[in-house]
Design brief:
Chain lengths: 294, 292, 217
């Protein structure tokens, strides 16, 4: 957005520009003073000592963090792949012409989108995870699959609905059957415009793997916990963990943006709202205006 | 494009310097005993002991997050603590060397299922003997007796159970200790591990932590300058060794092994290098429950 | 079965904490989010840069990590040591949710067409009038659907407070499940239903709000 043509202001004249320049400098000074203040504050609290940071340059702990990072990515990827399958099934179910398919699919989607992921994970873990069950790793992955699958089902449906109706009409006109229309005409096109939304969902899934913490699943945050348990450097550990998540997610976002530009063009990324009555069924809002998951 | 490449190279160089890993944190680690496997161990054929002896390896469930009892650091391969030492003593009597033990992390929720379904052969994980548990699994021992107490900062005024009315006390979510303390009039704060709970006490957010004295002693041993254990135990917990009900013969073996360890001093030694670090006196091995 | 019936007050007290957390965090996030969006779309570049960085950093960090920062990291800096747990929970939720609120509001501002403001200025409205009469009403309306999404997601996210000692609904469920292994599914459904009711209530309120505003337009 170029600043000159904002809906909020007129194009500024020379005097306003000067005033903005002054604000800029003032804000910059404030920011610098704030940062310097923060540095002295942290120093005074003894948070900048080498011992507190040492684990993060010690090979064993760097390896442990790296392994935790890989586990986290594995969990997120596995969950998203499974969620894709689950999501396509539910998405197609919600688009079905048969009420007895559509209704249960919609109910399942609504349920898993309305229930907090952590509640779901705790339930799966305590019911199927402990003992000889599926363990904490899979409890988290399955919880993520159910939740993200339901979100993807919505994204998927929005993707099909976003296609020009002429596509399906033309396919029916040349005599294709319902299944053929879905699998050979609609699905391939929808998947293409879904890809960026799917990658964005990876960011959500990656952040949510951290919830495994509560059921003793492995992963980056769990490694972080064992480090700060050992060294009592909670503050430093949090910064390192946050940095690792941010960089990973930033890379994922870059990929999503690139794929969007390369394969989809200028169209906005598909978005769906959180659970609730807010679906298209109620005519409240179309998926395009909603802004991403939290 | 060229600019990017130079930038990438610079970042890579920076990362390489970090990757060279000049740090040396946490190398001290916990103390452990060298235990030698009893090579002459012999058992009646058909017993679980004979199977394990034959197999030459064993799976033991321990806690990974309780300093002094069962704790595994992020960079370590093996847990350390009193429970771990007891596990090693038992394994040695089966003719299994410490390096052939597979340590499995257990949490309070999964100890019985692990034993029932054979995920582990033994559980030595601050595992209190109760009648309910003995319905589903075997528990030999006790090898240690403790009770619910309070862990407070060294400068705390809390010295009796009455003092905790109106204070905030933490323990592990859903534990009996937490329910007991709520009944005493404190606000209960549940955390999913003891470590987080003790951090809250150390940093001053909470007034006390409560659970079995043995676990509290482990934390006090780690940080004797800042933490102390107070209050006479107000419950009785007897730690036992869990085994599967399918192998009742394990009970006599475990009890014999514990008694031998008490006689030859390895029990004392195991305690001194773990929980004993907090300055608490080494206890006698408690009177063992007879095997059914 | 009996346990959850006879101790139903514990279920309610759990959801009461959930609601308190959700309400105050929503309020806090709306205020901070509005400040952030003002900085982000405003003319002062340094503030815009600051707001943008804050949004991008926090959005890519797991909420649990922010919980660890506030509950375990801040006390190490002698910050928030004596603060009640509920307040710390609200602070955490606000830090995390305000960037999403900022983005939802920004989407609303961006949806107002340039011609609207230009037309307002052309008929001689002052900056204040343009803002309060033309731009903001439309922007706020357009923000309602994305804001609803954010608030619903935030309400579900309050469950993570269970990890740090707040006895809200999810923590209570864990307690019940530990004591009554056989009723796990029932207990889960009771708590899930509680969350679904809250989510549908927020969603319904937003629907009413939007329908009312739509007829005015």
């Amino acid at each position: 957005m170029s600043r000159g043509t904002s809906v909020l202001f007129d194009v500024p004249g020379p005097r306003t520009r000067l005033r903005h320049r002054i604000y800029d400098v003032a804000a910059l000074v404030l920011l610098v003073v704030g940062l310097v203040g923060l540095y002295f504050f942290l120093d005074a609290k003894g948070q900048l000592t080498y011992e507190d940071w040492e684990p993060f340059v010690t090979p064993e702990f760097m390896v442990a963090l790296g392994e935790g990072w890989i586990t986290t990515i594995q969990m997120a990827l596995t969950a998203v792949l499974l969620a894709l399958v689950f999501g396509v099934v539910l998405g197609v179910g919600k688009l079905s012409d048969h009420r007895w398919v559509r209704l249960p699919s919609a109910l399942v989607v609504e349920f898993f989108r309305a229930v907090p992921l952590l509640l779901l994970i705790v339930f799966i873990f305590l019911t199927y995870g402990v003992g000889g069950g599926i363990g904490s790793y899979w409890s988290v992955v399955i919880g993520l699959m159910l939740y993200n699958g339901s979100v993807l089902a919505e994204i998927f449906r929005a993707g099909i609905n976003a296609l020009p109706p002429g596509q399906a009409e033309a396919a029916y006109a040349v005599g294709m059957r319902k299944t053929q229309v879905m699998t050979t005409i609609l699905l391939p096109q929808a998947v293409k415009i879904m890809i960026p939304a799917i990658i964005s969902q990876c960011v959500v899934a990656l952040k949510d793997t951290s919830l495994g913490f509560y059921v003793l699943a492995p992963g980056l945050t769990a490694v972080g916990r064992s480090i700060y348990t050992e060294f009592r450097n909670q503050f430093q550990t949090v910064l390192v963990l946050a940095l690792m998540y941010i960089v990973t997610n930033f890379i994922l976002t870059l990929i999503a943006t690139w794929v969007q530009k390369r394969y989809v063009g200028e169209r906005d990324q598909l978005q769906v709202g959180a659970a609730g009555l807010s679906d298209q069924d109620t005519g409240l809002a179309d998926a395009g205006t909603r802004h991403g998951q939290v | 494009m060229r600019m990017t490449r130079i930038k990438v190279a610079a970042v890579a160089a920076g990362l390489a310097m970090v990757a060279a890993g000049c740090g040396d944190a946490g190398s001290s680690g916990g103390e452990t005993r060298d235990v030698e496997a009893d090579e002459n161990a012999e058992f009646e054929s058909g017993t679980r002991m004979a199977e394990l002896n034959e197999q030459g390896s064993i799976k033991i469930g321990v806690k990974f997050d309780q300093p002094g009892i069962g704790f595994k650091g992020a960079s370590e391969d093996e847990p350390v603590g009193f429970d771990v030492e007891i596990g090693k003593i038992l394994a040695a009597d089966l003719g299994i060397a410490p390096e052939d033990i597979e340590w499995v992390e257990t949490i309070s929720d999964n100890r019985e299922p692990f034993l029932e379904e054979g995920e582990v052969d033994l559980v030595v994980a601050s595992y209190s003997i109760t009648e309910e548990r003995r319905q589903v699994v075997g528990q030999a021992g006790p090898y240690y007796e403790t009770g619910q107490q309070l862990l407070v900062r060294s400068d705390s005024d809390i010295s009796t159970v009455e003092d905790i009315k109106g204070t905030e006390v933490c323990s592990v979510t859903g534990s009996t200790s937490l329910e007991n303390i709520e009944a005493e009039g404190a606000t209960a704060r549940g955390f999913d591990t003891y470590s987080e709970c003790v951090d809250q006490v150390l940093n001053g957010s909470l007034d006390a932590m409560t659970t079995d004295g043995a676990i509290l002693l482990g934390y006090a041993a780690e940080d004797p300058d800042n933490l102390k254990v107070v209050v006479e135990p107000f419950s009785e917990e007897r730690y036992g060794v869990g085994y599967s009900k399918d192998a009742p013969e394990m009970c006599d073996f475990i009890n014999d092994s514990l008694e031998t360890a008490a006689e030859d001093g390895s029990y004392d030694e195991a305690f001194e290098i773990t929980l004993g670090e907090s300055g608490v006196e080494t206890p006698e091995l408690p009177a063992l429950d007879p095997c059914a | 079965m009996e346990d959850i019936v006879s101790n139903f007050d514990l279920v309610l007290s759990g959801f009461w904490i959930t609601l308190q957390l959700a309400f105050w965090s929503a309020l806090g996030s709306l205020v901070i989010g509005a400040l952030l969006v003002a900085m982000r779309v405003g003319p002062v570049r340094v503030l815009a840069l600051f707001a943008t960085s804050y949004v991008n950093i926090v959005r890519n960090t797991p909420l649990l990590v922010i919980f660890i920062l506030v509950f375990a990291g801040f006390p190490a800096l002698d910050l928030l040591v004596g603060t009640p747990f509920l307040v710390k929970g609200i602070v955490t939720m606000t830090i995390y949710t305000s960037p999403f609120v900022c983005e939802a509001l920004r989407a609303g501002v961006n949806s107002v067409q340039l011609g609207q403001a230009e037309a307002a200025r052309a008929i001689g409205m002052t900056f204040g009038q343009t803002m309060t009469q033309v731009v903001l009403p439309q922007a706020v309306r357009a923000s309602v659907p994305p804001l609803t999404s954010v608030i619903i997601a935030m309400t579900k996210n309050t469950s993570i407070a269970a990890v740090f000692g707040l006895a809200e609904a999810t923590a209570r469920m864990r307690g019940f499940t530990n004591n009554n292994a056989d009723d796990r599914i029932l207990i889960f459904l009771v708590f899930a239903l509680g969350y679904i009711v809250i989510v549908e209530a927020i969603s319904g309120a937003s629907w009413l709000l939007e329908r009312r505003w739509r007829t005015v337009r």
